[in-house]
């Protein structure tokens, strides 16, 4: 019997009621289909172990799950802690990979059931809230079922493509429209649906249930379609209507959705309808109406989902817009600087880069490490995501192109196949980029007037991808995303950003979620304001790793398809070889330029590897675009610069070039540094006429950009290096500007002499006289900046090439390539490392008299000689006569002489009167480094000297009166009085230096002394050295070394190792001692009773106990023969003394007599012996027990013992903590008797392993003088997979009075480190 569904007086309200029923019908029609496919999903993700909970699998903290409201307490990980499970972790990863938006709702799911219940897998694709207790698909609601179809990509193959096109979360997606029907019905404010909307609902749902892939022949779906038709045409029976209402109510009730209540108007409307329904279908229907009311209330309670839905839609929309923006802009790069408009997809021309990780040593030295081949190496260190990565590279090395490739990879990371990685051998792990929900790419050269990164993001990204009315909401969304999702911020071109701070401000950007990648030229990263601690990962880009692959890619873009590509690549390779341009691959920009000009036939004029010639070709090509007239410079007229000699398109445009180069110079050396690279059009007009501006724009030398919301346009040169080339050209023809303008610029901006690195290099190739003059000014600035080579506190040399030396070497090589003379470049700080040694040596010859520091770490295939003028003159005479004989009498002997001469190099230091630092480190032991004894006689200003593996017999330091740092290691022989007169000597390190009876009496300023092997001191060598703070002497000769430490009252760290005699009570006066290490064998002198008796150690401890500061890890080492075997056992004691007469002694298992006797009768109030890693094994029980009982002031005692011993405790004790590895019930009884016998009240904590805890508890409760405040039983589980034990967990609290003092003692004791 059919019944009407018109149970409400208002038609639209009745429509809404029918829509509710229709949604439940549709859900029931999809239920069997979803259940079947979830079984397939379970098979696809794999089988879990069935033991791990979701808390076990989620790290703490995890965004969206963990909420630490109190310190160290997580509201999510309450009963289970994170752990590793290979099978479950794999299932978890597979679930995540099937989630369309990589955000499974983990809180909903019970991981223990993943192995058997497909629904628990399906719950991961439900909305995050309200579904944790829903036990099946049948018990879920319409929104839950549709969410699974949308979020789980497995269902893509089960539905027609039309259902998911366009893909979610696009609002036009048919499946998204279906979900929106459910939301519109649930979230309605007036419970009304129009006729048109209702009919559209029926049509949409019925069409979806008839999807031809799976649903068309699904029995439940077919039945649902029939019911929808009956409901639409009022053909439902009363019985069917009642069942549907009942099912709808049960579904909504079980869903447990949370939200706002119905409005009063909706309640009134529904009440009226329910009254009508009661009259229509008799009293039995009243229950159904009540259930309808409850169902509607439940539906309305989901209103709070709307905010989350809006956020998710906003995130998806922003993600789509950003990727579209990047694909249209960043993903395209110019093929070459010749024609910026001729751009290509980055993957069409990109070749694998040559990138190395740079290690920042403790002293700041940056050394090249392994090559970086993966994105993971870019952002991870020790498997931890690093927050700040810097990529440095010279001009044109490909930094901007690299980050464009990275952004492009991120945009396409979810693509099934990517063209960008097909031909690459490096950086193919694009899945690493999935870690970043968003990538925000900003060009710092385009944000020169902004200081804050979030403002740059708004200007460069939001304002360009959103309408003005949407921009503010989008900006707020970005800020919210940064707080919840892992994002990557790329700052490209730090060296082109002129902000007052060294880097842009990250204000408003959470540190926990935002990773920053910054690109820059190397000189910028030498700024002392960028601390080493602010660089988590430093990478160095050296161009491309496969030049031939790069050649092929670029040529493919330039040539017609009919050309033979392989043959053309071969021809170009030969061109590079014949012109000595193979090294051009370090600059992809210049490499592409050469390819383009070669294709056009221009590059054949190159005569060598000159940068000036390369940029001349670039300048010519650009000039040709604006004015193709050809004209040559005649030999009769003076050339502006040599590199223009064979040009054809420059002369007709010479006036324009002069004017543009003046503008380039003026902007580079502008007092307004923010306008040095990007400047406004008004400022440009001060230098260029309208005609010249038109030429610059047509040629491509300059470009103009429209600024957002600004009237004024911004201008810049096609590339910074082009501007620097033109600026150098202007200087070469106007040398007077060096003193009139540049000198003042360098004085005003003390660090700017490195900014003009490239200008200087170009100038060396154009006008070497001007470059010589400019180098003098730059060298003055470099000297003023200081150049600390040696960091003595860390006991190693910090040898690194300065940025200015690299600048001068590059300029020297450019001058050589252009054959400009005379070269006399100024440089005062020299460092010989692996690169360009021969060039540095030639520059040294020009600057011997002005050198301030000289460091030699590597001189390939050469024997080195350091000498004074006399020695070098004698050697030169010998060499000259040998060379003369070889020239006049060529033959085998002459050839041998020539080879000997060529295999050696000498440094004549006689003219280096300004030398302040000298460090020679020979790493290649195949070649010798020899220093003449008198080589340093003329170095009166020398302050720091370091020689390692340098042979010198009888080194004369008598004239080095200003010497402050001296480090000599291996192969040096000193006379006993070698250091006499060095009154300013502050740091001294001698390792494997031969000297017997070294005198230090005149070194009154000495603060740090390290003597290792080889050196013996005069018995009174340290007498009078009151400024000594650090002493480290390692002595292993057969005869004993006696030292007098009585004057060393300010020593803070003292380390003595080997056969050293320390006079009794020598350490007593060291009131400032913080670290003491005494290491020797038992048979040696230090700890032998007759020379270092226990009374000395006792006096030392007594003194330290009264100190006004803590003394940490005072180490004492001894070795003594075991009684039961002929071997030595090493005994180590680490003593830490705190304030208030508190001492902790950590032994490696043994207590030796000297220490036991030394403790006797000391005024110790708190004593801790042993730790959790090493229990205290008492070998000398009598002396130890006597010493323990003699501590009459002892109030607190903590000990970790392997077994029970009969301890005798002082009556002063108030707190005792004892830990036993083994303790029987009878021994516990005896221990409690002894503790009870003490006169005063005693708080005692005892821990031991036992299975008799019930018996022990009852016995302790029965004692009269014992009150049990706490009796706890702990368990420790074993991790079978890893063979380790987990943390202790409390099984039960048998007795607990609420006191917590014992917990504090436990924590303090167990927090101690194992030694």
TrEMBL record:
Keywords assigned: ATP-binding, Coiled coil, Nucleotide-binding
Pfam families: DUF4559 (PF15112), NACHT (PF05729)
InterPro entries linked: DUF4559 (IPR027897), LRR_dom_sf (IPR032675), NACHT_NTPase (IPR007111), P-loop_NTPase (IPR027417)
GO molecular function terms attached to this record: ATP binding
Domain NACHT: from-to ranges: 387-496
Residue ranges of coiled coil: 221-265
The protein, known as: NACHT domain-containing protein
Lineage, broadest ranks: Eukaryota, Metazoa, Spiralia, Lophotrochozoa, Mollusca
């Amino acid at each position: 019997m059919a019944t009407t569904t018109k149970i409400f007086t208002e038609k639209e309200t009745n429509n809404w009621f029918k829509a509710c029923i229709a949604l439940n019908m549709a859900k029931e029609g999809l239920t069997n289909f979803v259940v079947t496919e979830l079984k397939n999903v379970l098979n696809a993700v794999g089988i879990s172990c069935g033991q791990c909970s979701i808390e076990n699998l989620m790290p703490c903290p995890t965004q969206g799950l963990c909420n630490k409201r109190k310190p160290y307490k997580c509201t999510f990980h309450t009963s289970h802690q994170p752990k590793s499970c290979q099978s479950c972790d794999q299932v978890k990863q597979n679930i995540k990979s099937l989630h369309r938006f990589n955000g499974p709702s983990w809180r909903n799911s019970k991981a223990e059931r993943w192995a058997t219940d497909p629904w628990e897998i399906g719950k991961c694709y439900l909305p995050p809230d309200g579904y944790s207790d829903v036990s099946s698909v049948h018990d879920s609601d319409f929104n839950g079922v549709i969410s699974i179809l949308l979020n789980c990509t497995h269902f893509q193959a089960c539905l027609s493509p039309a259902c998911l096109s366009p893909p979610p979360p696009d609002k036009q997606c048919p499946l998204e429209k279906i979900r929106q029907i459910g939301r519109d019905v649930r979230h309605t404010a007036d419970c009304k649906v129009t006729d048109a909307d209702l009919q559209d609902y029926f049509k949409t749902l019925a069409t979806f249930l008839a999807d031809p892939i799976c649903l068309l022949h699904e029995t439940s779906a077919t039945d649902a379609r029939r019911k929808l038709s009956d409901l639409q045409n009022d053909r439902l029976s009363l019985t069917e209507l009642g069942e549907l209402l009942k099912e709808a109510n049960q579904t909504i009730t079980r869903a447990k959705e949370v939200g706002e209540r119905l409005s009063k108007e909706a309640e009134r409307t529904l009440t009226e309808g329910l009254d009508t329904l009661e009259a229509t279908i008799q009293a039995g229907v009243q229950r159904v109406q009540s259930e309808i009311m409850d169902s509607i209330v439940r539906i309305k309670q989901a209103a709070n989902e709307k905010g989350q839905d809006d956020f998710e839609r906003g995130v998806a929309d922003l993600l789509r817009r950003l990727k579209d923006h990047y694909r249209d802009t960043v993903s395209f790069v110019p093929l070459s600087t010749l024609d910026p408009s001729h751009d290509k997809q980055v993957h069409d021309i990109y070749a694998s880069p040559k990138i190395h990780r740079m290690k920042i040593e403790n002293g700041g030295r940056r050394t090249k490490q392994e090559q970086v081949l993966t994105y993971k190496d870019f952002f991870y260190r020790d498997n931890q995501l690093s927050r700040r990565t810097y990529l440095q590279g010279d001009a044109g090395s490909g930094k901007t192109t690299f980050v464009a490739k990275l952004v492009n990879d991120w945009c396409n990371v979810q693509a099934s196949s990517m063209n960008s990685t097909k031909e690459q051998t490096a950086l193919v792990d694009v899945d690493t980029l999935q870690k970043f929900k968003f990538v925000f790419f900003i060009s710092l050269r385009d944000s020169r007037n902004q200081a804050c990164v979030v403002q740059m993001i708004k200007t460069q990204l939001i304002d360009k991808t959103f309408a003005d009315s949407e921009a503010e909401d989008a900006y707020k969304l970005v800020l919210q995303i940064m707080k919840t999702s892992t994002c990557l911020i790329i700052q490209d071109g730090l060296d082109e950003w002129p902000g007052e701070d060294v880097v842009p401000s990250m204000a408003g950007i959470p540190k926990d979620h935002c990773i920053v990648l910054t690109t820059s030229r190397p000189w910028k990263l030498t700024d002392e304001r960028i601390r080493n601690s602010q660089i988590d990962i430093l990478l160095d880009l050296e161009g491309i790793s496969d030049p031939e692959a790069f050649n092929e890619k670029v040529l493919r873009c330039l040539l017609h398809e009919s050309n033979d590509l392989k043959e053309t690549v071969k021809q170009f390779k030969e061109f590079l070889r014949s012109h000595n341009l193979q090294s051009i691959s370090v600059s992809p920009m210049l490499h592409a330029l050469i390819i383009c000009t070669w294709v056009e036939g221009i590059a054949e004029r190159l005569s060598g590897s000159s940068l000036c010639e390369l940029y001349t070709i670039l300048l010519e090509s650009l000039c040709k675009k604006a004015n193709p007239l050809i004209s040559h410079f005649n030999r009769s007229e003076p050339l502006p610069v040599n590199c223009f000699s064979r040009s054809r398109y420059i002369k007709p445009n010479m006036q324009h070039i002069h004017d543009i180069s003046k503008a380039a110079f003026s902007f580079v050396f502008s007092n307004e540094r923010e306008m040095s690279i990007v400047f406004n059009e008004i400022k440009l007009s001060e230098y260029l006429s309208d005609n010249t501006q038109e030429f610059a724009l047509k040629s491509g030398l300059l470009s103009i950009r429209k600024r957002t919301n600004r009237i004024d346009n911004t201008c810049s040169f096609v590339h910074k290096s082009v501007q620097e080339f033109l600026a150098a050209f202007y200087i070469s023809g106007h040398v007077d500007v060096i003193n009139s303008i540049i000198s003042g610029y360098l004085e005003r901006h003390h660090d700017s002499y490195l900014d003009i690195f490239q200008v200087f290099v170009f100038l060396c190739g154009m006008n070497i006289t001007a470059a010589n003059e400019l180098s003098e000014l730059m060298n003055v600035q470099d000297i003023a900046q200081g150049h600390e080579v040696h960091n003595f506190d860390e006991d190693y040399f910090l040898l690194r090439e300065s940025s200015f030396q690299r600048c001068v070497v590059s300029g020297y090589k450019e001058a050589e390539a252009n054959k400009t003379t005379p070269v006399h470049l100024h440089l005062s700080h020299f460092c010989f490392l692996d690169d360009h040694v021969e060039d540095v040596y030639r520059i040294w010859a020009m600057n011997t008299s002005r050198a301030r520091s000289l460091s030699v770490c590597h001189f390939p295939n050469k024997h080195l000689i350091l000498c004074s003028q006399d020695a070098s003159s004698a050697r030169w005479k010998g060499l000259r006569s040998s060379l003369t004989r070889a020239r006049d009498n060529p033959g085998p002997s002459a050839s041998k002489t020539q080879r000997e001469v060529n295999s050696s190099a000498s440094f004549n230091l006689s003219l280096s009167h300004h030398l302040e630092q000298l460090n020679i480190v020979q790493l290649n032991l195949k070649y010798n480094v020899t220093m003449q004894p008198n080589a340093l006689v003329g170095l009166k200003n020398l302050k720091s000297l370091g020689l390692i593996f340098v042979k010198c017999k009888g080194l004369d330091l008598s004239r080095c009166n200003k010497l402050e740092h001296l480090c000599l290691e291996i192969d040096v022989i000193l006379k006993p009085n070698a250091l006499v007169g060095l009154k300013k000597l502050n740091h001294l390190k001698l390792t494997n230096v031969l000297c017997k009876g070294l005198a230090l009496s005149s070194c009154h300023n000495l603060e740090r002394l390290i003597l290792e092997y080889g050196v013996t001191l005069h018995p009174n060598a340290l007498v009078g050295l009151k400024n000594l703070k650090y002493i480290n002497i390692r002595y292993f000769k057969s005869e004993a070394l006696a030292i007098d430490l009585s004057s060393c009252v300010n020593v803070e760290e003292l380390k003595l190792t080997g056969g050293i005699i320390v006079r009794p009570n020598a350490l007593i006066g060291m009131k400032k001692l913080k670290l003491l290490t005494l290491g020797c064998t038992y048979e040696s002198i230090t700890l032998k009773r007759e020379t270092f008796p226990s009374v000395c150690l006792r006096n030392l401890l007594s003194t330290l106990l009264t100190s006004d500061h803590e003394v940490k890890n005072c180490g004492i080492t001894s070795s003594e023969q075991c009684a039961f075997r002929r071997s030595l056992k090493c005994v180590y004691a680490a003593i830490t003394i705190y304030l208030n007469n508190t001492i902790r002694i950590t032994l490696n298992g043994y207590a030796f007599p000297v220490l036991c006797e030394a403790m006797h009768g000391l005024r110790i109030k708190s004593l801790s012996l042993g730790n959790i890693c090493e229990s205290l094994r008492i070998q000398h029980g009598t002396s130890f027990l006597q010493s323990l009982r003699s501590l009459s002031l002892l109030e607190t005692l903590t000990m970790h013992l392997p077994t029970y011993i009969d301890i005798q405790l002082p009556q002063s004790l108030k707190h005792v903590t004892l830990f036993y590895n083994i303790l029987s019930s009878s021994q516990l009884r005896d221990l409690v008797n002894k503790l009870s016998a003490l006169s005063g009240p005693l708080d005692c904590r005892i821990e031991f392993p036992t299975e008799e805890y019930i018996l022990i508890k009852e016995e302790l409760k029965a004692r009269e003088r014992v009150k049990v405040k706490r009796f706890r039983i702990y368990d420790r589980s074993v991790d079978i997979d890893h063979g380790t034990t987990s943390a202790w967990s409390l099984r039960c609290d048998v007795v607990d009075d609420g006191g917590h003092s014992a917990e504090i003692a436990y924590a303090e004791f167990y927090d101690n480190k194992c030694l």
